[in-house]
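To the team - zinc ion complex, inputs and output below.
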Amino acid sequence: MTTMITLGTFVGGYQILSLAAGGKTAIVTCRCGGTHAVSVEALLAGWSCPARPLPPDRRMALAQESDERQRRADRDWRPGR
Ligand SMILES: [Zn+2]
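Output:
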């Protein structure tokens, strides 16, 4: 059986970040905001994340945090560095 899983591929809403265990285990990013190690077999069979989605206020806080980080990075950016 050939699997068509490569880095960056989306499988059932999960994006493959990297592959481990000789390509048998995938490290995926997830809608819950976390990363998971899932066997490729399970992923292809329709694995779903056991974590509950983040509560909306926590999601908001995370978004603000990353906005803030981006703003700082933009502010500190200088040409030629
Ligand atoms: Zn998850």
